[in-house]
Automatic annotation (TrEMBL):
InterPro entries named in the record: Flag_Lring
Localization terms from the record: Bacterial flagellum basal body; Cell outer membrane
Segment forming the signal sequence: 1-29
Presence of the UniProt keyword Ubl conjugation in the record: no
Family designation: Belongs to the FlgH family.
PANTHER family: FLAGELLAR L-RING PROTEIN (PTHR34933:SF1)
Annotated keywords: Bacterial flagellum, Cell outer membrane, Cell projection, Cilium, Flagellum, Membrane, Signal
UniProt-listed Pfam families: FlgH (PF02107)
Record protein name field: Flagellar basal body L-ring protein FlgH
Function: Assembles around the rod to form the L-ring and probably protects the motor/basal body from shearing forces during rotation.
Length: 197
């Protein structure tokens, strides 16, 4: 086979490759480390539907003391009359009134726990609106914890959790149902009596 013939074949292959190249889709480079499966990827909540763990650590103490005192006294005295008023004898009256009241109220609350919530919205400034409910039922007693609020992305730690005191506009509700919770409530007659008096 002559050199001219070999060169002609090579030239034909090169020309065919050059003509077919525009028809082939461009090759895309694929990363070996996808963002979702990467060991080094950021797994923090950032979009609607993402989960976020809130570590509840709240305590509050309120104290109020009130004192009130009031006293009043009065006295009158009349001497013996003369002339037509001779019938008036020495007379006198006195009276006193006093009032004193003291009151003190101390209220202490402490709540700890962990609850996983979901991102329900993302505000224009990037803050995450979160909401979640946790219900625990045991031996006829049910405890339901509901929390809503707003979280800044920079307050979310690397393990995708945030402390409850970093949740803005936080609303934490704890409701209980069951025999023990019912015993802690006033009866209907007592509630009516307190309402009337």
């Amino acid at each position: 086979m002559s050199n001219i013939y070999i060169k002609a074949i090579i030239l034909s292959v090169v020309l065919a490759s050059a003509l077919l190249a525009p028809l082939q889709p461009p090759a895309e480079a694929a990363s070996l480390w996808s963002e979702q499966n990467s060991l080094f990827g950021d797994r923090k909540a950032r979009a609607v539907g993402d989960s976020l763990t809130i570590i509840i650590s709240e305590s509050s103490v309120a104290s109020r003391t009130g004192n009130a005192a009031n006293s009043k006294s009065a006295s009158t005295k009349a001497t013996a009359g003369t002339g037509v008023f001779k019938w008036i004898d020495n007379a006198g009256t006195s009276g006193s009134d006093s009032f004193k009241a003291e009151g003190k109220i101390t209220n202490s609350n402490s709540v700890t726990g962990r609850i996983t919530v979901q991102v329900t919205g993302v505000k224009p400034n990037g803050n995450l609106e979160v909401s979640g409910t946790q219900s625990i039922k045991q031996n006829g007693e049910e405890q339901k914890i509901t929390i809503t609020g707003e979280v800044r992305p920079e307050d979310v730690s690397v393990d995708n959790s945030v402390m409850s005191y970093n949740v803005a506009n936080a609303q934490l509700k704890i409701d209980g149902k069951g025999p023990i919770a019912n015993k802690q409530r006033q009866g209907i007659l007592t509630q009516i009596f307190n309402f009337l008096f």
